[in-house]
Amino acid sequence: MIREVLRMGDPRLWRVSAPVERFGTRELDGLLQDMRDTMAAQNGAGLAAPQIGVGLRVVIFGVEANPRYPDAEPVPYTELVNPVLTPLSAETEEGWEGCLSVPGLRGVVPRHTAMRYEGFDPRGRPIRREVTGFHARVVQHECDHLDGILYPMRMTDMRRFGYTEILFPDSAGEEEGAVPAAGGGGAARPAARRRPRRPRPPPLRELPPRGRALGRPCWARGPVGATGASARVASEGPGGAPYTRSCS
Ligand code: NI
């Protein structure tokens, strides 16, 4: 069932979510079904349970590959419960993000470049991956929701926060309401059936403020060295630009 996505200002988005204590339950399956439906309906790249008003440590994310955006990094569709994130270095990089809870806006957010994430799938089987680039960004964004953090709270320069249609006029039409979507971790999942249209990444020269060194936008990044179990799964979701779209 498609659920309403809470928007910034709703106090439920500031809460710290509780760990899931039992796996493989009907309740958890139902929650994940609703999250998949909601993310697909919003064409999102990710969604955290608190965004639909459920205070549990559950996130889903995924971005499919798209030949139109070869630089975009696909992210395998993943359902992650009780995640624990560990930065693999102190290195950070900036990239544009958006969020279904902050609709119509985009901002540049510094994130760790390489992360390990651990947790469980909905059946309680362990997940452990080391990822970089956009995959790492998506995970950090989604897991922040579990601690009551929205991406604007991570921003360091509010001049690089604004309305999508102003920041990226070329892609505004495609972009609004179009957050990256669930990828397809290979399996045919409901959320993966819907092939989100990826907004066209704006040329670098149009990134505001003009002429300023902004850091590379996430969709412009080169190949990610597949670290560890990382996640370059070929049939995965529309990558990169997501963050022009948004993530959750
Ligand atoms: Ni979000």
Spell out the key features of this protein.
248 residues, Peptide Deformylase, 5-stranded antiparallel sheet, 6 helices, globular, disordered C terminus, binds nickel (II) ion
In short, what is this structure?
The protein has 248 residues and is an alpha+beta fold. It has helices at residues 26-41, 133-146, 164-167, 172-175, 190-193, 242-245; strands at 46-48, 58-63, 75-87, 92-99, 102-112, 114-120, 126-132, 161-163.
Describe it.
The protein is α+β, with helices and mostly antiparallel strands and 248 residues long. It has a single domain (11-245), classed as Peptide deformylase (Peptide Deformylase), CATH 3.90.45.10. It contains six helices and eight strands; from the N terminus they run αβββββββαβαααα. It has helices spanning 26-41, 133-146, 164-167, 172-175, 190-193, 242-245; strands spanning 46-48, 58-63, 75-87, 92-99, 102-112, 114-120, 126-132, 161-163. Strands 1-2-3-6-7 form a five-stranded antiparallel sheet, sandwiched between helices. Strands 4-5-8 form a three-stranded antiparallel sheet. The longest helix has 16 residues, at 26-41. The radius of gyration is 16 Å and the shape is globular. Residues 172-196 and 198-247 have low confidence and may be disordered. The structure holds nickel (II) ion (NI). Nickel (II) ion is lined by residues 99-101, 141, 145, 247-248.
